[in-house]
């Protein structure tokens, strides 16, 4: 795996995105994105810019990481660490994972046996916020299942709303 691919994969996982989710956000197929992460292809400058923006990475630093023989990118070389534009997000996410012992709070699976995501107990779309108190660690399967359950049934029967005794009258647009 090349350095560019490793940096993109690391940043994607820190943000809790699957290949498919990131690909959908930037207009790139997940298989093409996988080839970039595995060092088999370099993205075009326009796709690299979309990746950098979505993952809060510095575009110039990603350009520096690219293969010196690439026709798409101007800056060869290597870089030792990722620099995030939004370090508050990265710190908050890490602190939540640490608080939850890198364990899904629904099923108990731990990293690295399953990808973990940080989810908002009260979704942003329903008036929740991005505080540590409103965040919980879930594996990808539990996160997707919870999203489906909330979209179909609302938050009244959600296990985390019940577990943390959240008063739903404080939030808008709840079913």
TrEMBL record:
Presence of the UniProt keyword Zinc in the record: no
Keywords, sorted A to Z: DNA-binding
Matches recorded under CDD domains: HNHc (cd00085), HTH_XRE (cd00093)
Pfam families: HNH, HTH_3
Cross-referenced InterPro entries: Cro/C1-type_HTH (IPR001387), HNH (IPR002711), HNH_nuc (IPR003615), Lambda_DNA-bd_dom_sf (IPR010982)
Gene3D superfamilies: 1.10.30.50, lambda repressor-like DNA-binding domains
GO terms, molecular function: DNA binding; endonuclease activity; zinc ion binding
Alphabetical list of SUPFAM superfamilies matching this protein: lambda repressor-like DNA-binding domains (SSF47413)
Domain HTH cro/C1-type as annotated: residue spans: 11-62
Protein's name in the database: Helix-turn-helix domain-containing protein
The species this protein was found in: Lysinibacillus composti
């Amino acid at each position: 795996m090349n350095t560019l691919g490793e940096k993109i994969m690391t940043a994607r996982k820190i943000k809790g995105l699957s290949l498919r989710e990131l690909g959908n956000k930037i207009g790139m197929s997940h298989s093409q994105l996988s080839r970039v992460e595995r060092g088999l292809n370099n993205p075009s400058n326009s796709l690299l810019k979309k990746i950098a923006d979505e993952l809060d990475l510095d575009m110039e630093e990603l350009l520096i990481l690219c293969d010196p023989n690439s026709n798409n990118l101007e800056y060869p070389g290597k870089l030792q660490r990722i620099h995030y534009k939004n370090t508050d997000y990265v710190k908050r996410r890490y602190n939540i994972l640490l608080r939850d012992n890198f364990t899904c709070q629904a099923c108990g699976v731990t990293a690295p046996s399953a990808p973990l995501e940080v989810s908002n107990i009260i979704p942003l779309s329903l008036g929740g916020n991005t505080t540590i108190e409103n965040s919980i660690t879930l594996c990808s399967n539990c996160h997707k299942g919870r999203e489906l359950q909330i979209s179909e049934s609302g938050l009244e029967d959600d296990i985390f709303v019940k577990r943390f005794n959240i008063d739903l009258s404080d939030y808008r647009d709840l079913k």
